[in-house]
Structure formats: structure tokens, C-alpha cells
Specification:
Number of helices: 4
CATH superfamily: ATPase, nucleotide binding domain
Largest sheet: 5 strands, mixed
Strand order of the largest sheet: 3-2-1-4-5
Number of strands: 5
CATH architecture: 2-Layer Sandwich
Radius of gyration: 18 Å
Helix content: 25-40%
Strand content: 15-25%
CATH class: Alpha Beta
Structural class: alpha/beta
């Protein structure tokens, strides 16, 4: 007697999308963040209260920025945690970045993405915002945008 044939309902390829990582593009402004889900094109934005920016830095209060980003992730309907599918995040600071970002600022932005639940965080240093297609390219091949 032969074992029953496996139907496609039980194939690994059918459950693979559960583990697919969501690609996100985070734009950091002075006391404001915008999050774009690159899979769906949905955009979410929040202003900081309390403010997280200082006079010279866009990211002066890490805890306030982390709370704001976690709220954005919740507004986007994304799950975080151990069993949640991973997120890949492209972080882009668009204000107060004249002359480039310091290593401290880059580390703070990377940690911000990690603390919000992103498994992989990519950084980009550019003066202008990326289009959705450019952001998808940058998160898929980070070396292409440096």
C-alpha cells in the first residue's frame, strides 16, 4: 500500500509566506517619522510627543524615538516578537545630516530599528528621499546604494 499523495495544502511552499520578512522603509525627520511598508505601499506617519530631536541632532532622545517607532509598527499592523516573521528595515535620516552622519548617529538609528523588531537593518545616507522602487532596490542589495 502506498502512502497518500501529499496535497499542495501541506507543502512547505504553502507555509513559506508565513516566514517571509516584511520590507520597511523608515524616514526620520526632526520629531517626526514616516514608515512605508514596501510590500503593500501603505504609509504611516507620526509626530513625536515628547520630542526626540535636539538642537543639533535628529535623534537626541533614543527612548522617545523608540516608543514612536514601535507605535508606527503597531499602526502598520505588523507583529514583533520571537515567533513573528522578521522585518527588514531601511532607515534613512533626512534632516540634520549635512556633512554625513557620525558613527554614533548611525549606531543609534540602527539600534532604533532593531529595538522596534527589525531583524535586519540597512542604513542609507542620502539627502533626498527614495522612491518605493529605489527603496526596494536598496533593501534588496544594500551595496548598490552606497
Amino acid at each position: 500500500m502506498q502512502p497518500p499523495a501529499c496535497s499542495s495544502a501541506y507543502g512547505f511552499s504553502d507555509i513559506w509566506p508565513v516566514f517571509k520578512s516584511t520590507r520597511l522603509y523608515l524616514k526620520v525627520f526632526v520629531n517626526r517619522m514616516e514608515l512605508i511598508n514596501l510590500e503593500t505601499g501603505e504609509q504611516f506617519a507620526l509626530d513625536a510627543d515628547p520630542p526626540f530631536s535636539g538642537k543639533r541632532q535628529a535623534l537626541a532622545d533614543f527612548n522617545a524615538a523608540e516608543i514612536l517607532l514601535r507605535q508606527l509598527v503597531r499602526n502598520a499592523g505588523l507583529r514583533t516578537g520571537f515567533l513573528a516573521p522578521g522585518m527588514r528595515m531601511l532607515v534613512h535620516q533626512l534632516e540634520r545630516c549635512e556633512g554625513g552622519l557620525s558613527q554614533l548617529e548611525l549606531r543609534g538609528l540602527r539600534d532604533l530599528g532593531n529595538m522596534a523588531g527589525a531583524r535586519i537593518v540597512h542604513m542609507i545616507e542620502r539627502n533626498s528621499a527614495l522612491s518605493r522602487e529605489e527603496a526596494i532596490t536598496a533593501i534588496s542589495d544594500p551595496a548598490a546604494c552606497r
